[in-house]
Amino acid sequence: MANNLNAIEFIDVSLAFGERVILNRVSFEVHFGEAKVVMGGSGMGKSTLLRLVLGLLKPDSGRILVEGEDITDYTEEQMMSVRRKIGMVFQEGALFDSLSVYDNVAYRLREQHLPESEIEPYVIRMLRFVDLEDVVDKMPNELSGGMRRRVGIARALVGNPKIILYDEPTAGLDPITARTICELALKLRDLEDVSSIFVTHRLQDIDVLSREYVLRDDKGNLVFEQEGDRLCLINTKFIMLKDGDIIFSGTDEKMRLSDNAYIKRFLAG
Amino acid sequence: MNLITRGIYQIQELTLLTWRVLRSVYRPPYYLREIVHQMDVSGFGSLPIILLTGFFTGAVLALNTGNTLQRFGVQNVSGQLVATSLIRELGPVLTCLMLAGRVGSGIAAELGSMLVSEQIDAMRALGTDPIKKLVIPRIVALVTMAPALTIICDMVGTLGGLLTAMTFQGQASSVYLASAQEAVDFNEIIGGLIKPTVFGFIIAILGCYKGLSTTGGTVGVGRSTTQAMVSASILIIAVDFLLQKLILSVLLQR
ipTM score here? Predict the structure, then answer.
């Protein structure tokens, strides 16, 4: 089956809220291991795209496939098993206010009734991955915006999902924290082979995701390298949304050469 | 949407939510810990206000009716009057109006802010059904706690009446209590407990519905909170009339 090459596939998906058309017969696919960066101005349906993948919203028409499985007509109960394969990082983190950082990250494992002895090392490992071991007992309202999002990422990674959806994870953050979050995305893309949709409108994110890659050196340390003259295949593709249509789809090199006026203005910043 | 379509739409959404609740209440997973927590927060947490309102309502009831009863020379039935009023009417309605103000609005505010900060979506994304995790525990808690609190309200109200009758009307406590005891009839109490069970459901489902249908950010949360409380209060009083008619003709026909 050709479909099985794709982690996520949209076929002619349309969605409108009343008179407002959000998506107009949108088709694209995310290959396994690929990071798909979705760009576009505010209110262009970027977040809606992610909600459709999770089945939090249903399209008016068209089909949505996750790992080759047609989820379009799934009920809420059927969606639960699909959602287990997907991690979602929400815009502001969307941590549960009433639970501590530990309980937030442990949430998914608790729901699966795992024994506490298994949960604890797992949670600590996840928090170490996002470099936040020391806030384990804090409540979400004691954290900064950047920390909250990193906890959100740790929570999304529980259960080793092979698909991760990022909803503007860097919006409104300082450049250094934003960079940290992009590096996390790089690590997941290059070392864990995760397929992802990365929604953003920040040019810096686009630069990092299209020009850098991460690898492990002989000693097992992580090394971030710039894409230089050396031949390398950075597994990131771009999509530009405007008024419900995909106006561009392809690699960053192609995008930077595009003569579309909107894309030029977008990339000029 | 105009007013009528919006009204019909809301009734439809509320019915759908009720249907989803009834359909999934018996299916696992059950969140027992969550239910107990909600019982504690909404039931035990409401105890102080129920004690205070119940006590003073009973006291003022005895105070107001004392003179009238004396004019007919039957002040010895004031215990029965206070107890009957409380068990039939004031206990359930007062308790549940208080719960609507304290708990119903709280539910709407909590679920509303969870919705606007994407926590409900996050919950669904993590594979939990918010109906089971958030809505059902709150409904179960209120449906069980409202009758329990009503009983307490009835009791302290009768006690408040007793203290008034003793201190201001010079009545012997034995007279008051003996007369109050006559009001405590089995069917009377059953009728007085059916009401808060129904009201508890109304408060919880309206709080959840209003919270989960919040739109318009933080301003919307405030609006949902008010609406949850107001609509629950009105519905309680309206349903009280219908239920009383039913109870009178089924349970209390003489």
Answer: 0.86
